[in-house]
Amino acid sequence: MALRKKVLLKVIILGDSGVGKTSLMNQFVNRKFSNQYKATIGADFLTKELQIDDRLVTMQIWDTAGQERFQSLGVAFYRGADCCVLVMDVTSPTSFKSLESWKDEFLIQAGPRDPENFPFVVLGNKVDLENRMIPTRKAQSWCQEKNNIPYYETSAKEGVNVEKAFETVARNALAREKEIDQQADFPIPIRIPQQEDPPKRDGCSC
Amino acid sequence: MSSTSPDETIPSTSNEFLIHNSLDMAQINAHKASNTPQNNTADLDSHNEIPMNLLPADKHPYWNNVPSGRTNIEDAPQLEYDEHHIDLIADRDGADLRQHLGYEDHQHDLGFSGDEDNGGDVYNNESLSNTNKNRGAIKGNITSDGIIDDDFESELGGHEPANLHDTEDVDYQLMAKIAEYGIIECCGDDKFGRKTIVCSACRLPSEDVIKNSDFKTIQKFHECLLKYFLRTFDQYVDVDYVIIYFHHGLRSYNRPSYGWLMKAYVRIDRKYKKNLKAVYIVHPTKWIKFLWPVLRSIISAKFSRKVTYINRLGELAEYIHLENIRIPNEVKTFDPVVRSQLPAGQIRPTTKFHVSLQFILENEPGETVPIVIRQTIDYIKNNGLNEPGIFRRAALVSLIKQIQEKYNEGQPVMFEQYGDVHLAACVLKTFLRDLSEPIMTFRLYPELLGLSALKRPDQVDIIRDLIIEKLPAQNYNVLKYLIEFLNLVANYSDTNLMTTSNLSIVFGPNLAWSEDDQMNTLANYSLINTFTEILIARYTELFLK
Q: Which fold, A7-181?
């Protein structure tokens, strides 16, 4: 099959502060991990091209600040997203409990078509740490409840599973695009019966 | 992993995309200096990806047309249409749509730019009927995302002839009844001399009321309502006019059906839109924002740009002489709730959140620093100075709310019982953020921005003068207490990792923000953070000399 058009996929990364959103993005795009501890201001994005089967895909990955104060900025960043990555830290029960509200927040703010089937991917980050608090089973069962969201356990620090997770992100976003294409972007036009021309009261055409 | 190898995944640095982009990206780049090489690819989609607060006010993207996602890279925007891209997207969407619907290209402007001001006259006379047919067909398309699933297709069937202006209308008396509700009223001129029409959702009667009235059925009521709307507008649409819409009070039991709204929209002829200069939506809710992507697909971009959100009645005063319009009482009483202010009835002397610093201190006699600040700081001083990510990490929202309520009710709060220093830290940040006016005050906000932009050797002296001379004494005392503590936290950054820079990122936005939400941009956040970092890092010079 001939190579088709390039596609741009917009991906949003959400999750509590300090779970490793920026690190995951940097690991995926630049294959680098920095030990520097730095809070993110607002939001930031990086892009990366990858080949998914016969398609060249440009992923535009938006990293957002977990700080509450920035959340009001959310709507502008979320809009038009093709996939949303929810990140938690497997050593932080709080960040796991927050997944639900991040997901809701995203759906409300972004208002995607067909919210039930909007592609999410959940990442349990920092699996390289020893003081793990969220067992894999617990995270998986949450994901299953939510319409079978794919779940990956990652380590941005050691690059574990990061590539694979983002490839799933791209694939699911592409699959959704295909579905929408097949449904056609626009519904069948509603026929408005045209009024009789000229109007009845108009006597001149008699 | 089959097809993704490291060689294929190169960060893009191609410049070819830049030629498609004429939008000024300087602002967004300002805070993105760290990853410049990757920005270029992103630029190709910049026309629909600019964060809202980076845009000038007149391009507020709530109301700009943003396509629903991916953009094909090869679809280079046609710059000759409009260098700002905004119309372009609408045009492109429109073009796709028209193609889909099988319209010829020459109908292009007729169908989609119906309320455009320029070139209107050409079509006005000769092609109006044609225009309306096309527009009706196009604007009817909304079910793609399934959010609106009402069966309005049948309602749109349009079996009734357009006898809206029939003077012998049998419904004449019913129309008079509609007028009594005051759902729409004409209220003089706005500040630019344009006729003003006020629509109040809270005055829509509920279904029960309708059934017990002369209308008998809801259908009849809505039919009359639409006629009344059009009649009222007929008196004004020959000159420039504006609509003020009070959204508060629209409830499930009085909300017109989507089908009716669609029908209304289709009925509204170009003549009503042409002179409509602005729509002010007062007290918009998440519901409106949620519905917006749907509405956007039926309302043209040009119409969208006429819409302004008004969160507080005070903001409306910029455009309208408030004394001229009759604001429903329900709306007036609702207003104080919007933003962080509580309605007067709910404020108790013990209330600590969503009130002013002044109020809190008045109710804590003898104290210069509110109890919430003192208690959270004490707890963190004793338990959290070495905690990694203190003030950055989140706490459970349910617990934060619980503690807020305890404080508001005047109950004692024991952080020891929760055993989480991040909880105390989050309560402190929430407290500052919920103040009805930030510690740094609204008045000083513009000065803070200007000040941070300067890189002067005497910056510290200027800041010292500013906070001593211009900040109210109450605020100064609280700020000093807080910054002294943050300076202490930063001293432990070897273990807690919270350097002055990190602390300024998480605290800056809680110390200063603008009353005007459009000013709270990322660029301005950065300036405020710079200011905050100076406060923390130079605490001794600023506060102790």
A: Rossmann fold (3.40.50)
